[in-house]
Amino acid sequence: MGIESGITPAMDTLLDVNDLHVAYGASEVLHGINLRIAQGEILVLMGRNGMGKSTLMKSLIGNMGIRSGTIRLEGTELAALAAYDRVKAGLAYVPQGRMVFPAMTVKENIETGLFVRGKSSIPDKLYTLFPVLKEMGTRRGGNLSGGQQQQLAIARALATEPKLLLLDEPTEGIQPSIIREMARTLRRIRDESGLGIMVSEQVLSFALDVADRIIVIEGGHIVHETTRADADIDQLTRFLSV
Ligand SMILES: Nc1ncnc2c1ncn2[C@@H]1O[C@H](COP(=O)(O)OP(=O)(O)OP(=O)(O)O)[C@@H](O)[C@H]1O
Predict the structure, then answer these.
(1) Domains in the chain, please, with CATH?
(2) Residue 192's pLDDT band (boundaries 50, 70, 90)?
(3) Cα 129 from Cα 49, distance rounded (Å)
(4) Distance between CA 215 and CA 53 in Å, rounded?
(5) 100 DSSP assignment
(6) Orientation angle between helical segments 106-114 and 146-158, nearest 10 degrees
(7) Ligand 1: residue whose CA is nearest its atom 16
(8) CA 221 – CA 142 distance, rounded (Å)
């Protein structure tokens, strides 16, 4: 049995996922996920390899169909919408492995996000957050370091002006010093723009740096939930160890 993942009712709900079931063919891997994210909240989804983090992320953005359940963003049902329309509705997604367009320049990569809102110029605030992207504007995305590509992927997602930013294992393949900086940057983005963020993650130190609340997925169920303030590090470590 999964547990109900709740936030206090006084907080405005941004994302509300109810009884979400997702399958690869006949094989169901998410067995009734319930979760809510408040406006301006940073939620970290933890779990070992193969527990269903990426599947949940993909089904939220619409890269995978769902078997049943609802996905509401500020009350709007997204489950029947194509990925592009979910982005228009306010979801943005940074996939595992970042997936920047390697042959396009840094500037062109960011511009692909602007298109969704019918805009053509990159807002200065993106370069304020990520100055290196301005310096490297004419470089090809594929020539950037892992940490720089992660910044580029986040900037491209923010260019769509999301209400909720989804990041799938953003620390994968990134140096520890850059991981700390990434946590600070994500909190800064939330503080400045008030958007919600959901991050899937296996690195506990990063999760503790960035989260307001942590949930744990195991075998396609949410099995644990805690605020950052109440997090029991030993217990979380046990969930993450094989
Ligand atoms: N394309 C696929 N076809 C069939 N089964 C899949 C497919 N992709 C993932 N699965 C299965 O779904 C389950 C959840 O996988 P998922 O990738 O969501 O886990 P994860 O928690 O994101 O792990 P990781 O950290 O390795 O990305 C696993 O049992 C996996 O084997």
Answers:
(1) 42-62+82-240 (3.40.50.300)
(2) very high
(3) 31
(4) 11
(5) -
(6) 30
(7) 52
(8) 36
One-letter amino acid identity for 199? V
Which residues pair with residue 199 across a beta bridge? 44, 167
Task: Output the CA–CA distances (angstroms, integers) from residue 202 to 103, 123, 135, 187, 216, in the order listed.
Answer: 30, 32, 31, 18, 10
Q: Is 158 within 8 Å of 165 (Cβ atoms)?
A: yes
CA of 54 to the centre of ligand 1 (A): 7
Nearest atom in ligand 1 to the alpha carbon of residue 55 is: 18
pLDDT (tens digit per residue) in 193-213: 999 999 999 999 999 999 999
Please state the ipTM of this predicted complex.
0.92
- Nearest-atom index, ligand 1, CA of 58: 18
Burial status of residue 139 (CB atoms within 10 A of its CB: 0-12, 13-18, 19 or more): middle
Expressed in angstroms and rounded, the spacing between residue 30 Cα and the centre of ligand 1 is 10
Q: In terms of Cα–Cα distance, which of 144, 208, 147 is closest to 174?
A: 147
Burial class for 80, CB neighbours closer than 10 Å (0-12, 13-18, 19+): exposed
Which residue, 166, 169, 174, is CA-closest to 149? 174
